[in-house]
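In response to the reviewer comment on reproducibility (Comment 2.3), we provide here a single inverse folding case reported in full, input and output, so that an independent group could reproduce the run without further information from us. The structure tokens appear first.
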């Protein structure tokens, strides 16, 4: 894992190095917690019950069945929880949702802290009941080693589960690196160009271009040349008069020209 991302893990889909994962403090604490829970559970189940001249089994902890049941419960659930969270730790970097990562971290904090407290209760409860157990209740010292192992590894489990809680809190405080989701600089500086310029050294190249945007409408109204009837008649009068004066037309059309001239003058 690259160590950059959200809650102490890399980006989603990043490759997982098994060796680096095994060397992490959280992984080591998880494996130790699994072993300690297994010892507490197996010690009470295998040698935590003895019979004294009858078929009925009695708990080695002052014949208190609640003490043995509590130790078995804490050890078994702790064993299963370690297996579950070990899988979550291994697959944590493949979780793409930041909200899901946050939920997983919060679940680990709550469970690890609560189970450290339960192991503290287990240590105190088993140690208290063992101190009240007399030698007459355990002929030939049966189950003494199992009882001591359950008490000792209950104490060790307090340390490992508390360490897991601290590690989970540290991951939660790391939060999410928001620079993975933003492209602007946080200090307000101008963003750099994403592509390098191919211009030679020492030359200044302007990047701003000014051009009209496409598909723009020309809001200027079109202009039209308007001719009035009076103006048109006046121009006709002048034109006919010019033709009469210059003599460009033949005499055959003189009457016609004269009529056109007076018609134009009348219209004007």
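Designed residues, in position order:
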């Amino acid at each position: 894992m690259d160590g950059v991302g959200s809650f102490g893990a890399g980006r989603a889909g990043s490759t997982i190095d098994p060796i680096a994962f095994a060397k992490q403090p959280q992984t080591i604490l998880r494996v130790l917690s699994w072993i300690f829970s297994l010892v507490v559970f197996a010690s009470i189940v295998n040698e935590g019950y003895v019979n004294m001249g009858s078929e009925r089994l009695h708990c080695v902890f002052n014949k208190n069945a609640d003490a043995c049941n509590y130790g078995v419960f804490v050890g078994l659930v702790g064993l299963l929880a370690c297996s579950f969270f070990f899988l979550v730790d291994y697959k944590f970097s493949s979780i793409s949702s930041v909200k899901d990562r946050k939920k997983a971290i919060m679940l680990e904090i709550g469970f690890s802290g609560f189970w450290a407290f339960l192991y503290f209760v287990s240590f105190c409860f088993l140690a208290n009941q063992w101190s009240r157990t007399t030698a007459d209740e355990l002929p030939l010292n049966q189950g003494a080693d199992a009882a001591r192992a359950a008490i000792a590894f209950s104490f060790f489990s307090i340390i490992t589960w508390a360490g897991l809680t601290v590690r989970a809190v540290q991951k939660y405080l790391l939060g999410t690196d928001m620079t993975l989701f933003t492209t602007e600089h946080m200090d307000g500086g101008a963003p750099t160009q994403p592509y390098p310029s191919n211009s030679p050294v020492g030359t200044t190249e302007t990047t701003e271009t000014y051009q009209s945007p496409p598909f723009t409408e020309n809001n200027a109204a079109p202009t039209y040349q308007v001719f009035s009837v009076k103006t048109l008649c006046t121009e006709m009068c002048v034109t006919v008069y010019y033709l009469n004066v210059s003599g460009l037309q033949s005499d055959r059309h003189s009457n016609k020209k004269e009529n056109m001239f007076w018609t134009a003058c009348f219209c004007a």
